[in-house]
Specification:
CATH class: Alpha Beta
CATH architecture: 3-Layer(bba) Sandwich
Largest sheet: 8 strands, mixed
Structural class: alpha/beta
Shape: elongated
Length: 221
């Protein structure tokens, strides 16, 4: 299997999991600073987003030439790689760092989704086209003349979570969990085992087994 095929397979397997199971596995390994701030939520709560991370960092630049900011933004759109989730440390409190045309562009290029500590606009359209976005707020205010990307594929920090190129993430209705890239394959293996055990616990409870007995039998709850 090629590296690209392996990455796609791992992303697909992770996408069949859920964030709570991933957190539990990481916690069991002593890794606890993995959950992005609770304010970062999905536009569409029915979608799960999972895949390898493409790191992007930027900052507010009030008074910047609008043409210059749009050149920089469209340059990013052409750079984001297929099969990845863009994670944007925007350091932005007021502006949308994703909108409908940008979402259309990234979706057409095979990008899996976008996660940011900034905002999103055109939310109804973004949700309608099916591009997964996790953002901290919604606003009609955009980046033109006021925000610039400044680094790609460099380590980021959002809240208490350090994020590096090669990491993976999963986001769903409960939030976003980041998996260190070096252990991502092992974590996904363990998550699949955990979910299998949870199915046994669920079946036991549905058959009338007392919850404590089900826990003691399978050591999972």
């Amino acid at each position: 299997m090629t590296e690209q095929a392996g990455t796609q397979s791992l992303a697909a397997r992770l996408g069949r999991a859920y964030s709570g199971a991933v957190f539990d596995v990481l916690r069991g390994r002593g890794i606890t600073e993995t959950v992005l701030p609770k304010e970062i939520v999905p536009l569409d709560e029915t979608r799960t987003l999972a895949g390898p991370v493409f790191c992007m960092r930027g900052r507010p630049t009030p008074g910047r030439d609008p043409h210059e900011t749009l050149l920089a933004w469209t340059g990013f759109l052409g750079r984001a790689p297929a099969g990845h989730v863009v994670v944007c440390e925007g350091r932005e409190e007021h502006r949308a760092l994703m909108g409908e045309l940008s979402a259309e562009t990234l979706l057409s290029r095979g990008v899996l989704g976008f996660v940011t500590d900034g905002g999103c606009r055109d939310c109804a359209s973004v949700r309608r086209i099916g591009f997964p976005v996790f953002a901290r707020y919604r606003t009609p205010r955009d980046v033109v003349g006021a925000w610039m990307p400044e680094a790609f594929e460099e380590p980021l920090r959002i809240g208490d979570v350090a994020i590096a190129p090669g990491d993976y993430l999963i986001g769903d209705i409960d939030g976003v969990v980041v998996i260190p890239g070096g252990i991502a394959a092992d974590v996904v293996d363990e998550v699949e085992r955990v979910m299998g055990t949870e199915n046994l616990v669920r079946a036991a409870i549905r058959s009338g087994v007392p919850p404590q007995e089900a826990y003691l039998r399978h050591r999972k709850f």
